[in-house]
Each structure stands twice: as structure tokens, then as C-alpha cells.
Amino acid sequence: MLTQSLGSIAPAAASSITPAALLAVGAGPFAGWAALLAIGLSVLIATAVNTFTRRMAAPGSLYSFAVQGIGPLPGFLTGCALLLGYAGIAVTCVAAAAHSLVQLVPVTLGPVLLPIALAAAALLVAGLVALVVVRGTGGLWPWLLAVEVVSTAAVVVAAAVLLADSAGMPAAPVELPRTDALGGLPASILVGVMVCASGFVGFESGTALGPEAKRPYLSVPRIVRWTPIVTGLVLLFSTIAQTAAFRVTGLDPAHTAQPLHDLLGAVGRPFWWAPVLDVVVAASFLACGIASVTALGRLLFAMGLEGVLPPRLGRVHRRYRTPVVALGAGLVLVGGIPVVALLAGVGARAVIDTAVGVGVLGYTLAYLGVSLAAPRFLRRIGEPAVGALVASWVAAGALGILIPIWAIYQIASGRWLALALTAGVLVVAATYLLATASRHPERVRSLGVFDATSALDVLPSDWASRREGPGPAA
């Protein structure tokens, strides 16, 4: 589960590209504060999520949790938003990994060969993801964890080198970009919080594997609590380093597809840094794609088992026991969208920007749903946990402010496609569930299936055996 959560975040990949996106929205010298606010927000969201992870386990993750708190329709929309989050980030990973791999080609590709090379690389990455997730990731988790640890360490070293080199260089005459799209710096910082949040969305995805864990009610809350803090600190350090480097080099963060790659060259580091970073970042994106598709498949599988989506999605592979139909449906989108777009000549940066926009909106809407669900769930079960209530309401209030600002920024910047796709999917999802409720109300009543806790799950084994009493007769 730790590897699943880390893989969904992809701290190496996120820390290499997110700071430049943060600077591009105009946060400027306040970029570090935006990153700190994003870490604080993620901790509040984690507290809301853990309201449920301590009491239930479900492959539907936040979808199942939200249904228990705010009912079938809002819960289903939360699940659909989470599907968009998983799919958007997975598409981002495929396109970004393909872009990093193409950078390793020693010759310059022309306008005809470049789209073909990018599409071929995206197809290769999607094929690797498919091979891993269909066969099952059980035996690969240690290797994927090692990939993330090594990749993150490489990015941290690169950020430290940038910070050290920048300290001895004079500031460039070109200032960091500022934006007036939202009326000034305060709004830009709030947009920056959403940009930073995109760097560690998915920290909760380990909850999708909760039913497969031995003691999920102990391990999952710890992973959900600490993963965003640790990865957020890595992102904060990379943000500080890249802010200093952009200031002294004069590079434009809005027009660099590989910030660490370009900044290390701008400060005079030897050429061999570039391919090393390309490899580790591509590996991190690949691990993120595997984790995102795994979580996407589990969520589709849960919805198929409940009957709210076609029951065929609830089928598993006879040999590998993985939700092969649900994974296949997810892989068609995750692999097909970037391949087709890149072959059509759409730039890798445009594909990544749109996919990230969909992913961030999907994840944050899902976080809003679970933050609203937690207080109602606690009230319903009669457990007035004051800390969780306060954290959930603050998180919901913050997201209620940030999401509209993010949407307005997307429109003002001409990036309306991600917003339109997200809104369109949620409207269709709401219409579909209302139609299903009128024809098959029993399917709607079955939403949000979960496993409940027992004393054996949360207490030491000798205490639990005394509380549970003797088992049933053989």
C-alpha cells in the first residue's frame, strides 16, 4: 500500500516539473508559501480520509467512503471524479514518460518523425503498464518502491546542486513571471496551492488495496497520514531550489518542458546530468502510471460488483486474479488518448497540461466529497471526534474556495478543455445514476460496499482473541 500511494504521487516526477508550473502561474517569491499551504491542506484532507480508513476498507476507496456519509448520488459523483483523477494522472504519466524517453534519442527529430516517435514511446509505456497491472503487482511492489526511492533521491540531489550553484550567481535581469489573470498575487498564490496539490494528489490511493491488506485499519491510516507530508517536503525543497535557479538563469518556467534538465544545463552542469534525469523521471512516471491504473481498475471493479456499472467489470482473471476487464477498460483510455493525440500532432506539453487539469480537478472534487462526508458519517455513527470534524470542515471550506478559483484560472488562461471534460463527465454521471435509480433502485441502494473492522484488526492478537471470543464451530 505504501508503494501504491507513493507510486500514485510519483514524488520524483512531481518534484521535477511542478515547481516550474507553480512559478508559471505567477506565485514568484511566494512559491514556497504556496507549497507549504498545499502540504497543510493535504494533511487536513488525510485526516478526513482517515475518518473512514480506521473504520472500513473498500476497493472503491473515497467513492465508498463518500456514499456512507453523503448518500448515493453525491457519493457516486465523488467516485466519478476520482475516476477522472486516476485517469488524468495516468494519461499524464504515459505522455510525460514518452516525452522523457524521446529526449534520449541522440538525434534531432523533425516535425514528421517527432509525433511518430512520441506516439510509439507512449504505446511502449502503456504496454509496460498493461503487462504489469494485468499480471498483478504483488511481487513487483518492492521493485517499484525501490524505483521511487532512487528516483526521488536523484531529484533531491539535483535540486541540492541547483540550490548550491544558484547561491553564487547574480540574479538575471529577467524577473520571474507574474500573472494578472485573476487580479493579482493573492489569487495567484491560491492557484499555486492547487498547482502544488497536483504534485501529491493520489496519496490516498493505497486505500483501494485496503481489503487485500492483513491489518488495513492500522497500516492504511499511517500511510495516508505520512505520505503527503514526506512527499510534500520533497516538493517544497525542489520548489525552493528551482525558484532560486530560475531567478539567476533567466529561463522562462512557462516554456520549459523539463525544468531540472534545462536548469542544470543553464547553470553549467555537465551534459551527462540530462540523460540520467530523463531516465529516473521516466521511471517515476512509469511507476505512477502503474499505480494510477491499478487504483482506476479497483474502482471500476467495485462499481461493477455493485451493479451500478456493467457487472462485467467485476470479473477477474482466472490465473492472476486481477480485475482484468476493469483494468482493460481503463487501459484503453489511458493508453489510447495520448497515443492518438500525439499521432495527430498535438504537442506532448499540451497533452500533459490537459490531462493534469482533468486529474487535478477530479482528485480535488473527490477530496471535497470525502471531506463533506466525514462529519455526516461521524454524526450518523455517534462518534463526535472533534479533531476530525474540524479538519474535515476546514478542508471542505478550503477546497470550496480553491476549486472555483482554479476553474476561473483555467478559463482565463484559455485552458478550458480540462474543465469542460470534467464538467461533461460529471453531468453524464449524474444523469446516468438518476436514470438507474428510477429503473433499478436496488442497484443504487447497494452502493458503497465495504469491510467493517473487528477487534482482531485493530488490537494486539492476544487482546483481540479475548474480545472476539471463540470462533464458530468447525
Helix-strand layout with pairing:
Blueprint: H1 2-9, H2 11-24, H3 31-53, E1 56-57, H4 62-70, H5 72-102, H6 113-135, H7 141-167, H8 185-197, H9 216-249, H10 259-266, H11 273-306, H12 324-343, H13 348-381, H14 386-412, H15 416-439, H16 441-445, E2 451-452, H17 455-458, H18 461-468
Antiparallel strand pairs: 1-2
Helix pairs in contact: 1-7, 1-9, 1-11, 2-7, 2-8, 2-9, 2-11, 3-8, 3-9, 3-13, 3-14, 4-5, 4-13, 5-6, 5-11, 5-12, 5-13, 5-15, 6-11, 6-12, 7-9, 7-11, 8-14, 9-10, 10-11, 11-12, 13-14, 13-15
- Quantity of strands, as a count: 2
CATH fold label: Amino acid/polyamine transporter I
- CATH architecture term: Up-down Bundle
Beta percentage is: under 5%
Query: What is the first-to-last residue Cα distance?
Result: 33 Å
Largest sheet: 2 strands, antiparallel
Number of helices: 18
Q: What class, by secondary structure content?
A: mainly alpha
Gyration radius, rounded: 22 Å
CATH superfamily: Amino acid/polyamine transporter I
Describe the structure.
- By secondary structure, this protein is an all-alpha fold.
- A two-stranded antiparallel ribbon has the order 1-2.
- The longest helix is centred in the middle third of the chain and has 34 residues.
- The radius of gyration is 22 Å and the shape is globular.
- The two termini are 33 Å apart.
